[in-house]
Amino acid sequence: MHALLISGSPRAGSGTSALAALVGDALLARGATVTLLELAEPSAPRLRDTRRSHDAVVLASPVHHASYSGLLKLALDEVPGDWLADTAVGLLAHGSGPRTGNVVCEHLRTVAGALGGWVAPTRIAACPADFAPGPHGAPGPHAALLRRCDALAAELHRCATMLRTPVPAPVRVPASAPGIA
């Protein structure tokens, strides 16, 4: 499975990107290949120019005025309407407080569905409190956040596998078969 993680933060190396990287690590642990695309980087390719070789896409955004970032909005506005067709989609939001990201995930769920994506049930809305100071002063994720990232990775893997499985041809039942009116 190949996963494309998209960080819609206008700051490279942001909390949003750190959150996306945690999900990426959980996907790597499941054998996936992962590409992290930070839209803030000047050399970042446009989404419409990326190859559609991914089985899963993770959309990550900071909370900007109770919605997702304009940078991510601009990138998603440029892709074709079927860009996420038959693709497993994970949603992440990083905000200032424990409940600020829920509405962002809901907005992104609508957009992902409009682009044909299959959104995983687990959505992650995190904040700085989900990270604790590590042994060298750098913040590290709390165990609860790691469990949520692992749950999302499991759902994305399962959904991507399901979407790659061919659908069998319908069984044709003759009209004269017993029990059919």
Automatic annotation (TrEMBL):
Origin superkingdom: Bacteria
Record carries keyword Oxidoreductase: yes
Domain NADPH-dependent FMN reductase-like: 1-124
Protein name: NAD(P)H-dependent FMN reductase
Coiled-coil segments on the chain, per record: none
InterPro entries noted in UniProt: Flavoprotein-like_sf, FMN_Rdtase-like_dom, NAD(P)H-dep_FMN_reductase
Keywords: Flavoprotein, FMN, Oxidoreductase
Alphabetized Gene3D superfamilies for the sequence: 3.40.50.360
